[in-house]
Amino acid sequence: MEEVRPTRSELLERRSQISLAQQGMDLLKKKRDALLIEFMSVMDETLRLSSVLQKNASEAQYSLAVAQSVDGTVALASAALATKGEITVDMTGTKIMGVSVPVVTKGESPVRTSFTRGYSITGVSSRIDDTADKFERVLDVIIEYADIETRLKRLGDEIQKTNRRVNALEQSTIPQLQDQVAYIRMTLDERAREDLFRLKKVKKKIERKRVEQAKV
After folding, report:
1. Among 5, 7, 31, 103, which residue's beta carbon has the most beta carbons within 10 A?
2. What mean pLDDT, rounded, does the chain reach?
């Protein structure tokens, strides 16, 4: 136990610290609960986007396999070279319950039309065009998924951090302060009993002297 001075002022100080620690713990619990609600909501969206991403990726791979088998690797490579481009994303931030969370948004949608992909619409088959469309949609979902997964991780980290602080207060700080309060009270009570005992002895001596003086 931390060495404390067993005085009444120290007792009042420790009681004040317990009150503040309990208030802080209650606030942290409310923050944690609010973050958990937000976390579960983001988790649902993450699972939804994960399912969409898996479905879109599977369809894109199937379309690619069909186009490759019918149109050939050379035609696919030629279309791929003609349709090269950039994917831009914007990085900003927001706050959830005071927690800074990065936000990833599309600068421009990667999904294009047959006329804006760069190749001649008459120079490729509908299979290749459909494959390009499906892979662009995969990229579109990946950007959304990156945003939601980043948010999920940030919230998860903050929940763990908040939970550690709650546990530290609940299992360490507050019990230690309560032990210190108990020690101070015990010491003060013991001193009070000793003082009372001494007073009784003094009172007896005074009474004894009075009796002796009365006899004289």
Report:
1. 31
2. 88
